[in-house]
Write a structure and sequence with these properties.
With 463 residues, this protein is an all-alpha fold. It is built from 16 helices and no strands. Mediates high-affinity intracellular uptake of the rare oligo-element molybdenum.
Length: 463
Amino acid sequence: MEIFYLVVFGGLAAIVAGLELSKSNKDRINTSSAFNSFKNNYLLVYSLMMAGDWLQGPYVYYLYSTYGFGKGEIGQLFIAGFGSSMLFGTIVGSLADKQGRKRASITYCITYILSCITKHSSQYKVLMLGRVLGGIATSLLFSAFESWLVAEHNKRGFEQQWLSLTFSKAIFLGNGLVAIIAGLFGNFLVDSLSLGPVAPFDAAACFLAVGMAVIMSSWSENYGDPSENKDLLTQFKNAASAIASDEKIALLGAIQSLFEGSMYTFVFLWTPALSPNDEDIPHGFIFATFMLASMLGSSVASRLLAHSSPKVESYMQIVFVISSAALMLPVVTSFLVAPSGVKGGSISFSGCIQLMGFCTFEACVGIFWPSIMKMRSQYIPEEARSTIMNFFRIPLNIFVCLVLYNVDAFPMTVMFGMCSVFLFVASVLQRRLMNVAEIHKSRLPEWSGAKEMTSEADPLNPE
């Protein structure tokens, strides 16, 4: 393996270690033993779920290519996954609110295990079925677990600030450390043991099965709105009404869609971007490096969230601008660095520059996840949390599907440029969200004071 990859990985590891070891008491939150037990149980489950997801990530594109499919056909398979998440996401989100988040989490495990099994077939229709199942599972992963956590946290009466601690730790472990280990483990299975690109999917199914057993034995059930007289259509209407009537929720949904849309497009593009001439790159190790960068970001986020200032709505504006600049690098290098005409070989100089930019973007992803979770816990109403969160994924999935459908029609630089623009727009909307939230908070004391004056004037009417 080239020294360049080791230097980047080692440098990021040193920074993360320095950040974690240098934390002072001001950067930590004092909690109770009951909360620590609750938090550790959730972190164990979340880490196992993310291990099942991350093991697959670096090898999806690679597996399809070994089966002989081209970029266009692979793009259609990816479209099936995102389209499935768009079509079924709101339904499974509403069912999670109504039927229970624990049941939804177990359903995620079963669905994703079935998706992993389909990877053993080289038949296009079977792989398409696997992508549909994977899309349903993804909707559950990014709604049911967080909804269960927030509801259970509040039900047990823990302090609201402690929720930020669980979010940041979950991203640090599940989207950082576990992802790194998963990337290295996948690399070991495929390259060292020569078990082939399907081996990580088998390992993922095993982790998902263990996580499902932990959920079944240790989690209690909770609901969004368990009332029997509300069908799915009513839940959809209530969720849509909440988004339409509250600008903060609408802005949050737009911000999330713009960032995640760019992120998922990046997931599809990073492999061909770093190896445009079929350069030999270590997919698993690069993926582990990306996750280490994400781990760095989540470490920074845990420090920021432990303090009341700067507010999450404020610093996320800067994060979006930096991420926009990072994904603009492939466009810049295409003009400034002469492309290599040599097929195969090691990563090019342009690829090295892009890899540094991609690591910067992944660091922004590490800050984004706990921060968006914090904002969702503040602004999204509990009774329709999973439904609204999956509503947010509809424009995201439409955007990604359109990009992947036209993947052969546009140069890669155009797609990266588009993602960069969307991330800059997310920064502008984030500033708007901060202003709206501040205006809303400034009006609360006036409203409370008016209530007190009314109560004093009419003691028989406390309202």
